[in-house]
From TrEMBL:
Residues 862-876 have a biased composition (Basic and acidic residues). It comes from the Eukaryota. It comes from Rhodocollybia butyracea. Residues 800-1090 form the TTI1 C-terminal TPR domain. Residues 7-372 form the TTI1 N-terminal TPR domain. This is Armadillo-type protein. Signal peptide: none annotated. InterPro entries: ARM-like, ARM-type_fold, TELO2-interacting_protein_1, TPR_TTI1_C, TPR_TTI1_N, TTI1_rpt. The lineage of its organism: Eukaryota, Fungi, Dikarya, Basidiomycota, Agaricomycotina.
Length: 1129
């Protein structure tokens, strides 16, 4: 389509629109429709790439002009006026290239009057937000630059035309119009319409950056800053955050107006500040007559920049910028990116005029570098790096400001922590972290200077004694929840799976003054960043914190250890809360490794005074230089107890309460040991002689927090030193642990928990400890001889011996093969004898068959004859041949190392069977029971024979745990030493068992819970000692029945005594053992078993067996199973 076609189309709209230009109630819908059609046609022409010429534009504009002139402004509806401005905006896209100044000015005034609701006689009709938005968009089209548009003019012509409009806007006659439009735009920007807010902010940016002269911008600076701050923080009446786009556009306006008014360049040019960039300028500044500034042209509406104006304005700007601090937490990335750009731009353009604003703006950038949005954090970091690396006048002042911020924030932390305001603490910690992370980026001189300043802060001249002690006085760790158990969960986990080493993070303590986890983590990251930025220079601060931590066990000492660990993590790049196998190791550093070795030794020595947990702190113990005013500020929870006589006023002030935290102190010491292992790695092995005992000692602690920390420490050390599992680590360093335990079991230095350490080590190492168990046993018996009167020590040593015997027993059982034969009934045995007799009797007269098989050479002389002569003859030949000792058929092989060790343990342990301690007596019996499968009859039975009276006495012990252990020993003897024990069982043990069963049956019947749960048979739980006693008695008598053919009377007593365990409500384990007993008894006398069981269940009704019937026992099912097994196949 050409111009004529477009004209014809536009004519069909413009002519009717001209006819309806006089608005009335009936013509308004027609005008609105025609304006819509006209706007649609103009947009289609624009989208097709065709530009309207000047004549066509004026032809279309004429009906619009007529509408505006023929009708009063208040009579034009908002909808019609809105469409008029939308058509004007479409026309101005091409009309701008042909506009005359008077037309440009009239259009400007028309748009401004609608934006400000100004009529012909002052205040006009208040227009709707949509109408104002259309006017703002039209004015934006009229004012925007055209450098990148493909218009009908050349670039130079376009630039000249733009300059013409700008110069006209800055004329004295137009400046009032410009100011009035600015005021109207600022007022409209505070509305609740988001599209209008965005449009007005775009208009403000164009007007202030292009059309306003510099001195006029100075005059409108306060109003623009005030409105922009309001819009950034949210318009009045709006709830929640302002929209991200509104915040971004508001900050962009502020950024532009600040750089144009109070930036270094305009202020230096105006003489408000003096720039010194070389020696000549410095000389002129120090001369008696300062250089005169050229006179400036006075403007009617402008403001001159003077030093006094600069001082007042800079203070007001600082106050305004402080109100933007809440934007750091804005939830949209667009707002955060805008704040980042605003801060960086103002820092770059105002290093001389706004030096007091640098810390504030830098804090914004530093806080944004830790934002959760990656785009925001990356932009903030890049902005900081550009400010610090790009040569500019601001770089040096920004570097100094960063260090002031670091020191001020470190000083502010002790003040903020007691206030319990987590948001402020987290903000301050994040600022310090961001500065430190910034110092580790790149190798530029400016960044290295920041790193060197941080190194000085943590070095000998950094005053760590002052700010460090202030920090320790308020950074108090909370005591972990104390859960005391008999065996720690960590020890149980480690013993159940000693070969596996799954990595889990260390349990973290909490801070009393911090409520949220995010705040705690920010403090941890702050210490990490400080250590990483300071490098090896920060080792001085680590040593200082460690010295405070090792000086006692109070709250400050525990906090000192915590700070030292976090700093050392940053310096060494070893993180205790990260899998050590994935940590990127740094290059070897001698100074760091030297300190790590020293810390490992000194920290391990804390376990030397293991019983000195009570710390007496006096006023003389606190150095004078630690008397800081901050120590008098206390945040005390709870009630202050008044005097008994209600004397409310007390003469003595409340002193500082010093609490001891030994558990937390040891847990943090274990973290420090783990860190040294992570630093030294394989070079940590020589330090195992010092460090293994503290870790193992803490694992056996009944306090769960400490034992879990020790378990994590053992796993961490295992991975760092390249061992496959904790068990392998302990096996390789078995001698170190044994030496540490022996040194803590002497008269000068006695640690009652040392035996627990040895016990857990034996459980972890397992079968591999057998080869080294001789040293352990010898050590235990030596200590038993010294401390036989101390029950707790004896019990611990006996427990160690029991663990050794359990390991040896397990190994012996794993090597044995099942060579037992199934028992046969007595009738079957008799039948087999008669069958063989009848077979021989039938063939007794037959001649024997010759055996032609060759069995080899036979001796020609009697066995053993001439042995002496043979030995004499072969004496000379044996020198060249290895000696071989022949073992006679009935001679037993020599004992191996495990059996010899077991025999020694048995011989030296039986004397403790009469010990006054119940636990020791029970453990000795368990120990003897573990030795039964290991030793042969000739090795074990002499000791059992000598101890047999004591064992029988233990069956009559007053404590059920001892009786149960003694029954278990008899059970083991019956199972493995049957040929020598069966008769003793029937003669000595069974009478005691019979009496014991009668007493236990009466006790079970009197137990209400037992009657309800088990029907009065057995115990209510399978985990009681009584249940174990029942099981041992039944199994012992089962073995006795299988080994010896008892008398009928004794067999009948057994059959009658154990019937109640066949009750269906008895424990399943006892039912199974009882069935096995009756099967064994049935092999001896099946008829007696049948009679007793059927009579008990009521299956046989007879007056002679009526006394056997027990109606309360349901044994029918078990009886059928037993009789089924006894039936011959």
């Amino acid at each position: 389509m050409n111009a004529s076609d477009h004209f014809k189309i536009l004519k069909t709209i413009c002519v009717p629109l001209m006819d309806a230009s006089a608005l009335s109630a009936s013509s308004i819908p027609t005008v609105s429709r025609l304006l819509n059609e006209l706007l649609e046609i103009l947009r289609n022409i624009r989208s097709s790439g065709y530009s309207l010429n000047q004549s066509t534009i004026k032809y279309v504009f004429f009906p619009l002009y007529t509408l505006l002139n023929r009708n009063d402004s208040s009579a034009i509806p908002d909808q019609v006026l809105e469409k008029i401005f939308m058509v004007l905006q479409a026309l101005c896209e091409d009309w701008w290239y042909y506009l005359e100044l008077k037309d440009w000015e009239q259009l400007f005034m028309l748009c401004g009057s609608v934006i400000g609701s100004i009529g012909t006689k002052g205040k006009g009709k208040e227009r709707a937000d949509e109408t104002k938005e259309a006017a703002v968009q039209c004015l934006l089209t009229l004012l925007r630059g055209r450098e990148n548009d493909n218009g009908p003019l050349t670039p130079n012509q376009t630039r000249s035309r733009m300059n013409m409009f700008i110069e006209h806007a800055q004329t004295p006659s137009f400046i009032p119009i410009l100011g009035q439009t600015l005021n109207s735009t600022l007022t409209s920007a505070e509305c609740h319409s988001l599209p209008l807010q965005k449009a007005t902010l775009d208009l403000l940016l164009i007007m202030l950056s292009v059309y306003f002269p510099g001195d006029l911008v100075v005059s409108v600076l306060p109003g623009v800053i005030s409105t922009s701050c309001k819009l950034s923080l949210g318009a009045p009446g709006n709830k929640g955050w302002a929209k991200g786009t509104v915040v971004a556009k508001s900050l962009r306006v502020m950024q532009e107006v600040i750089s144009r008014t109070i930036g270094d360049e305009p202020c230096i040019k105006a003489g408000a500040v003096v720039s010194v960039s070389n020696i000549e300028e410095l000389t002129g500044l120090l001369s008696e007559q300062p250089p005169r500034q050229p006179p400036q042209k006075e403007r009617q509406y402008g403001t001159t920049r003077t030093p006094s104006w600069l001082g007042q304005t800079s203070l007001q700007l600082l106050i305004a910028m402080k109100t933007l601090s809440s934007l750091v937490k804005h939830p949209t990335p667009s707002a955060l990116n805008a704040l980042c750009e605003f801060s960086a731009h103002v820092l770059l353009t105002t290093p001389t005029t706004l030096p007091q604003c640098q810390p504030l703006l830098l804090s914004y950038l530093l806080a944004l570098s830790n934002a959760e949005f990656p785009s925001v954090s990356a932009k903030a970091t890049d902005s900081l790096l550009d400010l610090l690396t790009t040569p500019s006048e601001a770089r040096l002042s920004i570097t100094r400001a960063l260090m002031r911020i670091t020191r001020d924030n470190l000083t502010a932390l002790p003040v903020l922590l007691p206030s319990h305001v987590d948001s402020k603490v987290e903000h301050v910690a994040g600022i310090i972290e961001a500065i430190c992370l910034l110092a580790t980026r790149g190798d530029q001189n400016s960044l290295s200077s920041v790193a060197s300043e941080i190194a000085k802060l943590l070095g000998p001249t950094g005053g760590v004694e002052k700010w460090g002690w202030s920090l320790l006085s308020v950074l108090e760790l909370a005591d972990p929840e104390v859960i005391v158990t008999r065996a720690s969960a960590a020890q149980t986990m480690l013993e159940n799976n000693p070969d596996a080493s799954p990595w889990l993070p260390f349990p973290q303590p909490t801070l009393k003054n911090v409520s949220f986890t995010s705040t705690y983590e920010s403090l941890v990251r702050m210490f990490h960043a400080l250590g990483k930025a300071a490098g090896e220079a920060g080792l001085f601060a680590v040593e200082w914190f460690v010295s405070v931590g090792q000086s006692g066990k109070d709250s400050k000492a525990a906090t000192g250890m915590w700070c030292a660990c976090r700093l050392l993590e940053g310096i060494s790049n070893v993180d205790l809360f990260q899998d050590p196998s994935t940590i990127l190791k740094l290059s070897s550093r001698k100074k760091l490794e030297k300190l790590a070795r020293a810390l490992a030794k000194s920290t391990s020595q804390l376990w030397d005074g293991i019983g000195e947990d009570v710390l007496d702190v006096s006023s003389e113990d606190i150095p004078d230089n630690h008397q800081d005013p901050l120590e008098s500020i206390q945040h005390v929870k709870g009630l202050v107890q008044l005097h008994d006589t209600l004397q409310i006023s007390r003469g003595t002030p409340i002193g500082v309460r010093i609490s001891s935290q030994p558990t937390l102190h040891r847990a943090l010491s274990l973290q420090l040991l783990s860190l040294t292992a992570g630093i030294l790695e394989a070079r940590f092995a020589p330090l195992f002689i010092y460090t293994l005992y503290p870790i193992l000692h803490s694992i056996v602690s009944p306090i769960s927090f400490l034992s879990e920390t020790a378990l994590r420490a053992l796993t961490f050390v295992t991975v760092c030193t390249s061992y496959a599992s904790p068990a392998n680590l302990l096996l390789s360093n078995f001698d170190y642990v044994l030496d540490s335990v022996s040194r803590r079991l002497n008269r000068q230095w006695l640690d009652v928990d040392a035996t627990k350490v040895l016990t857990v080590m034996i459980r972890l190492v397992g079968a591999d400890v057998v080869d080294r168990a001789g040293d352990v046993v010898e050590e235990c018996f030596d200590r038993l001889d010294e401390y036989h009167g101390y029950e707790i020590v004896v019990e611990g040593l006996v427990e160690v011996l029991s663990e050794v015997m359990k390991v040896i027993r397990f190994e012996a059982l794993s090597k044995q093969t099942d060579g037992t034969t199934l028992p046969i009934m007595q009738a079957q045995a008799d039948q087999q004898k008669f069958d063989s007799f009848f077979e021989w009797f039938m063939h007794r007269h037959e001649s024997p068959v010759d055996d032609d098989e060759d069995y080899g050479p036979a001796p020609r002389r009697a066995w053993g004859e001439n042995d002496v002569q043979d030995k004499g003859k072969d004496k000379d030949n044996t020198e060249d041949e290895p000696e071989s000792e022949a073992v006679l058929p009935d001679e037993e092989p020599p004992l191996d190392s495990s059996q010899a060790l077991t025999k020694q343990v048995v011989q030296r342990s039986i004397y403790f069977l009469t010990h006054e301690s119940v636990g020791i007596r029970a453990r000795i019996l368990d120990l003897l029971g573990s030795s039964v499968p290991v030793l042969s009859e000739s090795s074990l039975m002499p000791s059992i024979h000598s101890a047999w009276p004591f064992i029988l006495n233990r069956l009559a012990d007053a404590e059920i745990i001892v009786v149960s252990a003694a029954a278990a020993l008899v059970e083991a003897l019956a199972a493995y030493m049957g040929s020598l024990m069966f008769r003793r069982i029937w003669d000595d043990v069974w009478p005691r068992f019979r009496t014991m069963l009668s007493k236990l049956e009466l006790a079970d019947k009197s137990n209400t819970i037992n009657r309800r749960v088990r029907g009065g048979v057995g115990t209510e739980s399978v985990y009681t000692h009584s249940h174990r006693l029942y099981r041992s008695i039944i199994k012992t008598m089962t073995a006795a029945l299988r080994g010896v053919d008892p008398q009928d009377s004794s067999n009948w007593e057994v059959i009658v005594a154990f019937r109640r365990f066949l009750h269906s409500e008895a424990a399943d384990e006892l039912q199974q053992c009882a069935r096995q007993l009756y099967v064994a008894s049935g092999m001896v006398n099946a008829d007696a078993v049948w009679l007793a069981l059927t009579a008990t269940s009521g299956q046989v009704a007879s007056t002679s067996t009526k006394f056997l019937h027990e109606a309360q026992w349901n044994i029918v099912q078990n009886v059928s199973l037993i009789l089924g097994e006894l039936e011959p196949n």
